Amino acid sequence: MDTDPAPTPKVQVQFVTRHADIAVPPAPILVPTNLKRYGLSQIINHLLDTPTPVPFDFLAAGAFLRSSLDEYLTQHGLSAESVVTLEYVRAVVPPKFRAAFQHDDWVSSVNTLSADGDAPLILSGSYDGIARVWNISGQVVAEASGHTAAIKAAKWTPNGAGIVTAGMDRTLRLWSCDPESSAITPLAELLGHKSTVTHLAVDPRSTHILSASSDSTIGLWSTTPATPPPPPPSSLLPPKPSKKRKTTSTTTTIPRYGALALLTGHTGPASAVEFDGKDATVAYSAGWDHTIRTWDLATHRLVDTRTTQHPVASMCVLPSLSLLAAGSTARHITLHDPRAGASEVAAGVLRGHTNCVAALCAGGEWMMASAGHDGTVRVWDVRAVGSGSVFVVRREGGGGEGVTGREKVFAVEWSGVGIVSGGEDRRVQINETPTGAEGVEPKL
């Protein structure tokens, strides 16, 4: 005698989102417990009456739902009488490899310029002491040669009018840049650090530059000082190089200036520095002394110190969330609320890298990318602190003799060009972020 199969159990689900354009009514609805992400996406698309299906991801208790609702209820000891709250977001589309640009030495830094109406340009700094400007076709349109040791950081100055570079010769250098004529002209040499300059930050709202140095200080500089500060005494200037490097030819002596201020407080090498995303008079620095520090740039005062469990190797600002992301030498990323009233030192931890997190960058309101010494670039959604990285972007191929594909990645940036990275394999790699991702969409 045939019997009817047992009905599929159902559970009440409340769908919520932080994006007003895809919000559905908040009242809980009854759905089968055997549904997974695809079936839940169908429900949201039906409620939104979308002309073309949109893939969604779902977060439950701070982690992406990667099982059926029934399995989720069992894992968390919940009954079918519970009301499950699911936060839904547009699914992140995996970045696609687009191109790679070959260098002669390790790539330490990348920075993109995507001005309205102009073709994107990519600035790279290399251990060969040369900063290069590339067009999106992989052609070098300009070179800046002048450093006497490896470049560790390179950034476009505001409005793309020039670039600033810094490195192991203890100096910062300012350059004007005209990619159309392939002309890069040295403007000034900025002196004051006593050891390697490891990181730079440029404030788009002003003419200020910040530098982090292995000498434990944070440098504050100006691209257009009203009264240029004098350089330090000759006894404190960097030594002459032991071997010649290629330099940009010039018939004039490059002026030398000092810092507006050298901020002291770190007790070990400073590894990263950033301007606050909302207030140009506030800055943050991090270092190997297990601290993240907050600075008042108007008074040059240290106003707050947060102690971390491990040395910090990288940092980025998530301005819309009022959070700092700090990459540690211990392979994980911690999220910090730097505001004075924050009750917790760490607001969340992201785990997935298997070696030092060398670079971090924001890729939208909730998204972030990281570069690691494990040879990978990872994409994260900070809403899902319990899920690990959303995607792993591996370096494609090799960069020449001795390159195995497992080389350290030193730099990453997520911009309109896509996810741009560089490292020990001596290449700048571009991975496009397809339209529909939660991060920045390409504008090529």
TrEMBL record:
Molecular function via GO: ribonucleoprotein complex binding
Domain of life assignment: Eukaryota
UniProt entry keywords in alphabetical sequence: Nucleus, Repeat, Ribosome biogenesis, rRNA processing, WD repeat
CDD domains given in the database record: WD40
Protein localization: Nucleus, Nucleolus; Nucleus, Nucleoplasm
Functional summary from the UniProt entry: Component of the NOP7 complex, which is required for maturation of the 25S and 5.8S ribosomal RNAs and formation of the 60S ribosome.
Subunit structure: Component of the NOP7 complex, composed of ERB1, NOP7 and YTM1. Within the NOP7 complex ERB1 appears to interact directly with NOP7 and YTM1. The NOP7 complex also associates with the 66S pre-ribosome.
Name this protein carries in UniProt: Ribosome biogenesis protein YTM1
Species annotation: Morchella conica CCBAS932
